[in-house]
Each structure stands twice: as C-alpha cells, then as structure tokens.
C-alpha cells in the first residue's frame, strides 16, 4: 500500500519536470505558481521520498550512429532456477540495451535495443540473446517512430543522476 500523499501542486511540479528536468527552480516556481523557496522545498521532499529518482537526458540515437531501434521480447526457459536473475544481469551490462523491463503474460522481458546497422542488430539477437542458455525465444519489432515520449537513453546506473551531485 502506498501511503504517499501528493497534492495538486506536487502533481503540477512533477508534470513540468517530466517535460523538462533541467528547468531552473525559478522557472519551475513561475510555471506552477509557487515562490522559489516553496517550490525548491517541494522538489527536495519529492526527491527525498523517492518520487523523483533522478534526472536523465533524452538522446537522439540516430545522431550517435544507432540507426536500428527495436523492441525485443524475451521468453525464458522454464524450469531454469535463477534464469531471470542471470538474464537481468546480462541486460544490465550491455551497451545496446536502453530499457529492459520484466513483464506479465507469456513472455518475461521487453527490451529496447539500439544498434548501428541491421548486421549489428542481428549479431545481438543471435550471439547475445538467442544463444543464451536461459533464453528460449525472442521476438523483435523494429521501431518506425516514437509517438509519445521518446527513447530515453538508460544504459545502466550512470543514466540516473543523483540530484545532490547535480
């Protein structure tokens, strides 16, 4: 049960920060209608309570040479103790993974993958995923475009910036 209480002002602050995590506290306070000190106190509280986990940059993967952007669905071998943990560790340590999440249903993970070329993507699928002993199957979907949001580059823990260091 989540006992966290957010009021309308907290929700407003979060809405603005979702769109622009780099906004100054002064600008944020103007957008939400609070004094800068009140606004900063609320942001610090939301960070301390773990509502705001960090701040990240939205990266244009094409500009980095990653022309292939895909969702890969992974199904694990059943009856393989520890498979989920081993595959999760694999995914956390691969530079081509931008997002990995455990899901419900007939599959176990959905992964957002980037690669420079189709040959590189194919190598990831065959060598890294399909040949992994804990993975029974994969299915991939090439992304045409992002309709809502964008591909936030979240490869490993470096993508989350501690607000105390920012």
TrEMBL record:
Domain HTH asnC-type: 6-67
Chain coiled-coil ranges: none
Record's keyword annotation contains Phosphoprotein: no
Molecular-function GO terms, alphabetical: sequence-specific DNA binding
SMART domains cross-referenced by the UniProt entry: HTH_ASNC
Origin: domain of life: Bacteria
Annotated GO biological process: response to amino acid
GO cellular component: cytosol
Assigned keywords, A-Z: DNA-binding, Transcription, Transcription regulation
Protein name (database record): Lrp/AsnC family transcriptional regulator
Source taxonomy: Bacteria, Pseudomonadati, Pseudomonadota, Gammaproteobacteria, Pseudomonadales
